[in-house]
Amino acid sequence: MNADADIRAALVSLLQGDAALNAQVNRVYDGEPAKATPPMLVVGDVLGSDWATKDKAGRELRLSLTVEDDRETPARISGIMPLADAAVRGLSGTIGAWRVGSLVMIRSRLVRNGAGRWVAVMDYRVRVLAN
């Protein structure tokens, strides 16, 4: 019963199964790939903290998605971001031994990195309680 692993696996599955998103990226990766071709989406680290009640175990998880593109302008990556967000918002209900209480995007950023690639990072907070 590991909320961090259960929720991450469910998120990766949702993203990899989303047809609209996968039509726009070469691949959805579970963790940073050693070698990949943009555009790509990477499910990053999961940071967890206690979110228990008096009588139920609970976790607050911070999840990070990174979209990377090698185009000159952010036009393509700007179109991928809402598709990824829509897929993430499908994370609901019961997942393993956990029930999703809330899911919100807490921040996003779109920057050009030193390698000349556009990078979008989308950070989410997911709160879950044990069933």
Structural summary, described in words:
This protein has three helices and six strands; from the N terminus they run ααβββαβββ. The protein is α+β, with helices and mostly antiparallel strands. It has one domain: STM4215-like (2-Layer Sandwich), CATH 3.30.2000.30. Strands 1-2-3-6-5-4 form a six-stranded mixed beta sheet.
What are its keywords?
3 helices, alpha+beta, 131 residues, six-stranded mixed beta sheet
What's the β-strand tally? 6
Helix/sheet category: alpha+beta
Give the helix proportion (percent range). Answer: 10-25%
Average residue pLDDT: 96
CATH class: Alpha Beta
Give the low-pLDDT segments: none
Q: What's the number of helices?
A: 3
**Which word captures the global form?**
elongated
Distance between the termini: 11 Å
Report the portion of residues in β strands.
35-45%
How many domains comprise the coordinates? 1
Write the H/E string, N to C: HHEEEHEEE
Question: Can you give me a brief rundown of this structure?
Answer:
With 131 residues, the chain is an alpha+beta fold. It has helices at 3-16, 19-22, 75-88, and strands at 27-30, 40-50, 58-69, 94-95, 98-112, 118-130.
Question: Topology of this protein?
Answer:
Blueprint: H1 3-16, H2 19-22, E1 27-30, E2 40-50, E3 58-69, H3 75-88, E4 94-95, E5 98-112, E6 118-130
Parallel strand pairs: 1-2
Antiparallel strand pairs: 2-3, 3-6, 4-5, 5-6
